[in-house]
Design goal:
Lysozyme-like; SH3 type barrels; six-stranded mixed β-sheet
Length: 336
């Protein structure tokens, strides 16, 4: 399975939208949004992609800008511009950048790790496909490779310094980014997360798709991609348990991939369907309850208290846990 199979084209520019020029295969340009309000959004990558789709020519904002892809929200990928064509995110470097990738901000370590892994994987995929070297910020104008927006500023002008400052806040140095782009991420770095087998029914982040328990007697083969040809050489022992981030055909992604035939899974049906009614939630902080979403505070429900969801608002940002009793979804974990 290619990483392109994960791309959401909901906000891809249509006919007569965006630049019609084919870009020369010199640079993959890396950005981050710089938008700190992303950290409080439920799906910042979608919001950013939708904004670029609506404002690519600057009719509403007075500033024309869009990238090829927007990554974020736990490893989601949204396409805006057409790969291989000029996008408008790097000034005079645009004609030489067939791929430009933006990254949404987050304040959640788990989300950042997934976003970062996807960001690196997407850049590597296109660099290899287009014959662009897997180097970071090498040389000056005309030196092919993967470039940060900081490099564009240094060589073509402008004032942007992303994404290195944002990465530094997460402990990702320029040397690490360069290494990961050149070599790819190891399985552990791609978000593989073992959990305690006895914690089967414990609260987990609502962003977790589920938990996979290895039941095959000789263990579960770990794959680097969702197909039987890409074995990593690692076998996960029987009885171990792993958090699932996504589903790919007959495989579950846990950082690497495991076959569905080798594990038993409890899935988070709420994240799969968007419908949390009937699921049990646990408060991850002391939380005010409300008579209605955002209206009339009631009592406080304590951290760790569990409730059955009996209703939700349209975007599932609020859960109803009693007659005229609501809590904000951001303060809730799910009990699988």
């Amino acid at each position: 399975m290619s990483i392109l199979d994960r791309v959401d084209k909901t906000f891809a520019l249509g006919d007569n939208e965006g630049d019609s020029r084919t870009a020369e295969n010199y640079y993959i340009v890396l950005h981050e949004s710089g938008n700190q309000s992303d950290v409080n959004a439920s799906d910042p990558a979608r919001n950013e992609a939708q904004f670029m789709k609506s404002n690519w020519n600057g009719q509403k904002t007075g500033a024309a800008a869009y990238a090829t892809y927007f990554v974020g929200s736990g490893g989601k990928i949204f396409q805006i511009g057409e790969p291989g064509y000029v996008a408008w995110a790097a000034l005079n470097a645009n004609p030489y950048a067939p791929i430009q990738i933006e990254l949404a901000r987050t304040n959640d370590p788990e989300t950042f790790n997934k976003d970062y892994a996807t960001y690196v994987e997407l850049a590597r995929y296109w660099a290899q496909k287009l014959g662009i070297p897997l180097t970071l910020d090498a040389g000056g104008q005309g030196t092919k490779g993967i470039k940060t927006h900081q490099w564009v500023t240094n060589n073509y002008g402008g004032d942007h310094v992303d994404p290195l400052t944002y990465f530094a806040a997460w402990g990702v140095t320029k040397d690490k980014l360069a290494h990961d782009l050149a070599n790819g991420l190891g399985i552990e770095e791609r978000g593989i997360d073992e959990v305690n087998y006895d914690d089967f029914n414990q609260p987990r982040s609502r962003k977790i798709l589920g938990v996979a328990y290895v039941t095959k007697s000789d263990g579960a083969t770990l794959y680097s991609e969702a197909n039987p040809w890409d074995k990593t050489g690692r076998v996960l022992p029987v009885g171990s348990a792993w958090q699932i981030s996504s589903e790919h055909g007959n495989y579950w992604q846990i950082g690497g991939y495991v076959s569905k035939n080798d594990v038993v899974v409890k899935t988070n049906t709420g994240i799969q369907t968007g419908n949390w009614v009937g699921m049990t939630i646990s408060m991850n902080v002391d939380t005010n309850t409300f008579d209605k979403p955002d209206e009339d505070k009631l009592a406080i429900t304590k951290k760790g208290e569990s409730w059955l969801v009996i209703g939700q608002n349209k975007d599932a940002s609020w859960f109803q846990i009693g007659s005229n009793v609501w809590v904000p979804a951001t303060n809730c974990d799910v009990i699988l």
